[in-house]
Amino acid sequence: xxxxxxxSNPTNMSDASKQPTLYGMQISAGCRLATWAANISExxxxxxxxxxxxxxxxxxxxxxxxQGRHCxxxxxxTLDDGTVxxxxxxxAIARYLCSIGNGxxxxxxxxxxxxxxxxxxxxxxxATCLYKRIGAVAYPRMGFSSTPPEEKDFEALRKSLSYxxxxxxxxxxxxxxxxxxxxxxxxxxxxxLNMVSEIDVAQDFPVTNKxxxxxxxxxxxxEVVAPFEQFxxxxxx
Length: 237
Ligand SMILES: N[C@@H](CCC(=O)N[C@@H](CS)C(=O)NCC(=O)O)C(=O)O
Description:
This protein is α+β, with helices and mostly antiparallel strands. It folds into two domains: 3-99, Glutaredoxin (3-Layer(aba) Sandwich), CATH 3.40.30.10; 113-236, Glutathione S-transferase Yfyf (Class Pi), Chain A, domain 2 (Up-down Bundle), CATH 1.20.1050.10. It is 48% helix and 9% strand. It has nine helices and five strands; from the N terminus they run ββαβαββααααααα. A five-stranded mixed beta sheet has the order 1-3-2-4-5, covered by helices on one side. The radius of gyration is 18 Å and the shape is globular. Mean pLDDT is 93; it is low at 1-16. Bound molecules: glutathione. Glutathione is lined by residues 28, 30, 52, 57, 70-73, 88-90.
């Protein structure tokens, strides 16, 4: 398990020893979300690879750190007063990293709770619906499921894309006319569309397509997604 540092320009952190550590594998969508959020928010994080195939998530220390869940991504962050935050759940980790960072990614609108509610709504939608729908189509193609996708799975995914298309305003963002963690979350999940050649996003969902193209120019998206793109390409061959 090699440790390396993957982001520069620490913000709001008093010294390097207080940098959070992210644990995971870059082909995991949740790990990519956390890494991308840290980069855009200029939070320097240490990266520790946890190779699931080699069982590195089943070590006693990782099981302890994840409170028995042994899942990635996980984050550990020692605060200035010595408090140790150890947590799982990619969306919550992304929110946290954005909230301790440079403010480039909105996580809440303190003066407009109705907008915060929309961030929450969309991220809950990702967790409970969108991710499962795209997973139903993409996971079998990545070798992570043996259930081949059916027409109803494609229809469900199209329904989600129609929903996102309608939720995008002419500001080019999902909520409040500004970049929020909901944009990062949903765009990151939709990176798995590269396994779904049956859906022509550019033609059928042009607003979503433009939004995705813009989001993919932000921060180190290209670098973060590269291992997954390579993996996906190898599965498409
Ligand atoms: N809802 C969680 C899902 C985490 C999850 O299922 N991670 C998978 C890899 S993508 C994992 O760690 N599997 C190994 C295990 O659970 O033992 C999140 O978004 O972080």
